[in-house]
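Section 5.1 Outputs to date
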Amino acid sequence: MKVAFVTCVQLGRSCIEEILRIGGKLALLITLEDEQAKNKSGRIYLDDLSQLYGIPLLKIRNINEPAMLQRVKEYGIDWLLIIGWSQIAKPEVLNAPSFGCIGMHPTLLPLGRGRAAVPWAILKGLDRTGVTLFKLDEGVDTGDIIGQEVIELREGITATELYRQVNQAHIALIHRYWNDIADGTVQLRPQDHAAATVWPGRKPEDGEITSSMTMLEADRMVRAVAHPYPGAFYREKDGVLRIWSARISPEKGRIRLRDGWLEPVEFEMEGVC
């Protein structure tokens, strides 16, 4: 069984490292071209793994480009793992490997299809989330499920902590199901599409703290967009306050909220001359 792996972020690299750690074999590694790496947040490289383990490395601009399809067919790839890649694979790519393509999504599908899964889990005040390993189809996060790893969310969790737990869940799922993938014995179960929810994408400007927010809303916002995300921010007369951590209080603080105050703990001032 020939398996190729597509990624450009740490979540994917962690999976590759686990596959190699347990003695798994990969026929091909695929990542972004180097010049694209400079402007991609959280971008990682695979050159060292390619050289260390003697695995061919293909660098592409788009997952749907002809060179990608040609290489998958040339190598006779059976499974193509696409993990940590923002571009949507077209049917030609999904159908190129003999068994298909596999992805991961950091929610318990069918809940939370879409983007920004880590921030939304905190913003929505969920008590648990997780990661789903599934077979990709032409929809967005709609494919049949292979397995899931549950993450219990403690009160006050930050995006930084949750991202680490999501990374560990990726590793756990790869460890648990690698033999099934390598042997071609993956068992699939369909999603309950009637129970599906979709979470929209988020932009850096969505992290703004305003005086109309409640203490709960402001606290969740700060925690939801902490590292590795762009951080929450508050506009002051002299510039922008970039907030990485904060305390809420009904009595006092730097930022007035609808029902109390927000006191930044870890922060930076931007736009001050």
